[in-house]
Amino acid sequence: MKILVLNCGSSSIKFQLINMADKSLLSEGIVERIGETSALYTYKSDVFSIKKKEMVIENHEKGIKLILENLMDKQNGVISDVKEIFAVGHRLVHAGEYYSDAVKINDDVMDKLQECCVLAPLHNPANIMGVEAVKSAMPETPQCGVFDTAFHQTMPAKAYLYPLPIELYENDKIRRYGFHGTSHKYVSMRAAEFLKKDIKNLKIISCHLGNGASITAIKNGDSVDTSMGLTPLEGLMMGTRCGDIDPAIIVHLVKHKGLTIDEVNNVINKKSGMLGLSKISNDMREIESAIKDNEDKRASQALEVYAYKIKKYIGAYAAAMNGVDVIIFTGGIGENMALLREMVLFEMDFLGATLDKEKNKIFNSEIVDLSGSDSKVFILKVPTNEELMIAEETLKVIKN
Question: What is residue 52's predicted lDDT score, i.e. its pLDDT?
């Protein structure tokens, strides 16, 4: 059975076609700059690839059509008919409190997606466009939604409630929702499998570190707390997002610096984080290079702040769960930046967590146990695969 996995943004469509018989990747790619004068299209399979081809792609419907045409191309395609695609699995961002698991997409789900647009105004409308585009191109193919927020619906009220007037939660559903749920779920399951332990008996802290970053406390297989909040802005410092700050800073910028709300929103979402502190880049590869090659003080300081904030969340979540058995590093930065892992785990003796510095240098695409010989906590590098998780969830839902 083949599952097409889609991640639809406002002007992009990322895709993977996965053969669930052996979980192999048949094809992947991305459509970028949809609706602009010059879109970019990348397509890759074992037999054929298109790299950054420029063309005009007016809307998501045209983008989906282009993807399907390449998948079924007589000479270079990987399927002969669209009917070979058993189902389409979508990465959907926000479901509010409605769904705690993947769901088959129907009219009711679409209504809920629309309703939650107020909570995710940048993401949910794009997700809706993606679903509608597939419906137009493949009307007989079932579709499944896997929500970023779903995994975190197991959080208790003490973790998700903000100390604001309670009517803001009761009437407006302002609360912590969390994101990256699909990734956190996937890596925690893979970690348990790797350790040959029942996830129901584990306390796991999962660090998803990429341009966007979040940490989740997972107890007995359930998310019990997570760093992102109502939006992906809360929590860790990120590539361009500020993460946790005193909310009065926003009032100060409006009242005393004369910034508009939109200008402040741009500062805290797009000009802060690693980019804001380093004044170099939001790309950790460039930050690391600046530190090693130029001994750049701003870059070093920015990385120290980043590592320190990760360390604080690990400590907080260990306290919240009364201990920790496994600490996971995943995401583009978590998997590839040995220096950051070493900084985060420096002086974690109180947790009994020690790092094997030689193993920490291992660079591959497999799960690696980075634990020191005397470590009481398993420290694992676990490559994430949200697309495979979405495909697995989609297959389970549609077959049932």
Answer: 85
